[in-house]
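Case study 2.
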Amino acid sequence: MKASSSERKLQEIAVDEDELPITFDEFVAMISSFSFLVKLDVSCLGFEGTLTDELAKLFNLEILDVSFNFLEVGFRILQ
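Prediction:
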């Protein structure tokens, strides 16, 4: 896992492993307190499950890359 920061606040996480030994829900629960996170790249990790409201805790998140995983949307997307 690679993280970059600015002003001592974690802003970006990019996970480089092929697969993590945890579920997507467990991963999101681990990082949900990183409120300054702006970019999260967890593409190509083989995650299975559902994108849930737990991601809403990352209120500064601008970029979320979950491509090439097996995730479903479990919340209503507002337009």
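Residues 24-31 form the longest helix (8 residues).
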